Amino acid sequence: MILANKEKVNILSIETSCDETALSFVTASGGLKKPTFVVHGDVVASQIKLHQPFGGVVPALAKRAHIEHLPLLFKEIVDGGMRPEELDFITVTVGPGLEPALWTGIEFAKQLAEQYNKPLIGTNHLEGHLYSILVSKEKPDPKKIFPAIALIVSGGHTLLLQMDDLTHFKKIGETVDDAVGEAFDKVARMIDLPYPGGPEIERLAKEGNPMAINFPRPMVGHKNYNFSFSGLKTSVLYYLRDSAKAKKDIVKADIAASFQRAVSDVLIKKTLRAVEEFDAKSIMISGGVSANRTLRAEFAASIEKRFPIKKDRPELLVSEFSTDNALMIAASGYMDYLRGKEYKIEADGNLNL
Ligand code: KG4
Ligand code: ZN
């Protein structure tokens, strides 16, 4: 176990769980009371162009691209001023994600740890998303934001958490089928938009009418906090099929806008219900889908409507680092270091929170 006995630590973080190769170099301080990060280097090599012709991530190609990118990004970080000798530890994502991709980061991290004789801390990608709030420019004050409700919406996960503080949290809901990002990507494909579909749907939705088509809001009335997006995706498919049969013109922008509205309605309703039940002082939203500006704006507007009196209103904290990156991994690695939490240094594609 690595003892958390230093006021300031220099961290190199590595992320390769899906289709972004990312490294960051930060100095962390402040401990659990006020975790603070000074960013010295933050680089991401995206593989979007590589996977786009296939309409999704191809694991074997992702693996090869990570292997190519890792040494180049490491050199970029070193050229930017990192002296590996001054690192306190290296942290790497061990899961969840694509195992062949995860292994590339783990092997690279192991080599560096050995070469420079540094401790290696395995960390959880989902905690990375959760803690990405901490590396944002507008730093939340841990004394004021708990209890909190956290919503993680990514390509692989949809999770609702109740948090007592930074390190004590409980999962209260999750998707029973597709993740939100996955639904965005699949619906995008149905209307011939390229991968990744989320940003494309958001762009097209701006030209459409969100009230044009009344897509279902799955499980919105259920008492629990689980989500389901597979049925919503299927109703888009049926809508397209029925329109084609009836020789009705389809307006893709209306489909995009109406689908996006259905998703945000469900996410917002469930999250705000949890806020009320748990008397939360803040709502933290992270993961790739939280990059969606329309979703953020609808969250903000719904919070204002539901809590008209400002002093009762939970604070909305949206990560600036929504899509996969290595800063969030530095943040979760630091939290693991402070807590003495140790993950096995091996890829676990299904690692949970
Ligand atoms: O967190 P992330 O980068 O990777 C995972 O951990 O999965 O999330 C990727 C997902 C993809 O499904 C992508 O379509 C979605 O996030 N996404 C968006 C937007 N930007 C990325 N979804 C909706 N609106 C966006 N602007
Ligand atoms: Zn992610």
From TrEMBL:
<feature type="binding site">
    <location>
        <position position="129"/>
    </location>
    <ligand>
        <name>Fe cation</name>
    </ligand>
</feature>
<comment type="function">
    <text>Required for the formation of a threonylcarbamoyl group on adenosine at position 37 (t(6)A37) in tRNAs that read codons beginning with adenine. Is involved in the transfer of the threonylcarbamoyl moiety of threonylcarbamoyl-AMP (TC-AMP) to the N6 group of A37, together with TsaE and TsaB. TsaD likely plays a direct catalytic role in this reaction.</text>
</comment>
<keyword id="KW-0808">Transferase</keyword>
<feature type="binding site">
    <location>
        <position position="292"/>
    </location>
    <ligand>
        <name>substrate</name>
    </ligand>
</feature>
<feature type="domain" description="Gcp-like">
    <location>
        <begin position="41"/>
        <end position="330"/>
    </location>
</feature>
<feature type="binding site">
    <location>
        <position position="185"/>
    </location>
    <ligand>
        <name>substrate</name>
    </ligand>
</feature>
<dbReference type="InterPro" id="IPR022450">
    <property type="entry name" value="TsaD"/>
</dbReference>
<feature type="binding site">
    <location>
        <position position="198"/>
    </location>
    <ligand>
        <name>substrate</name>
    </ligand>
</feature>
<feature type="binding site">
    <location>
        <position position="324"/>
    </location>
    <ligand>
        <name>Fe cation</name>
    </ligand>
</feature>
<dbReference type="InterPro" id="IPR000905">
    <property type="entry name" value="Gcp-like_dom"/>
</dbReference>
<keyword id="KW-0819">tRNA processing</keyword>
<dbReference type="InterPro" id="IPR043129">
    <property type="entry name" value="ATPase_NBD"/>
</dbReference>
<feature type="binding site">
    <location>
        <position position="202"/>
    </location>
    <ligand>
        <name>substrate</name>
    </ligand>
</feature>
<feature type="binding site">
    <location>
        <begin position="152"/>
        <end position="156"/>
    </location>
    <ligand>
        <name>substrate</name>
    </ligand>
</feature>
<dbReference type="InterPro" id="IPR017861">
    <property type="entry name" value="KAE1/TsaD"/>
</dbReference>
<feature type="binding site">
    <location>
        <position position="125"/>
    </location>
    <ligand>
        <name>Fe cation</name>
    </ligand>
</feature>
<protein>
    <recommendedName>
        <fullName>tRNA N6-adenosine threonylcarbamoyltransferase</fullName>
        <ecNumber>2.3.1.234</ecNumber>
    </recommendedName>
</protein>
<dbReference type="GO" id="GO:0002949">
    <property type="term" value="P:tRNA threonylcarbamoyladenosine modification"/>
</dbReference>
<comment type="similarity">
    <text>Belongs to the KAE1 / TsaD family.</text>
</comment>
<dbReference type="GO" id="GO:0061711">
    <property type="term" value="F:tRNA N(6)-L-threonylcarbamoyladenine synthase activity"/>
</dbReference>
<dbReference type="GO" id="GO:0005506">
    <property type="term" value="F:iron ion binding"/>
</dbReference>
<dbReference type="GO" id="GO:0005737">
    <property type="term" value="C:cytoplasm"/>
</dbReference>
<keyword id="KW-0012">Acyltransferase</keyword>
<keyword id="KW-0408">Iron</keyword>
<keyword id="KW-0963">Cytoplasm</keyword>
<keyword id="KW-0479">Metal-binding</keyword>
<dbReference type="Pfam" id="PF00814">
    <property type="entry name" value="TsaD"/>
</dbReference>
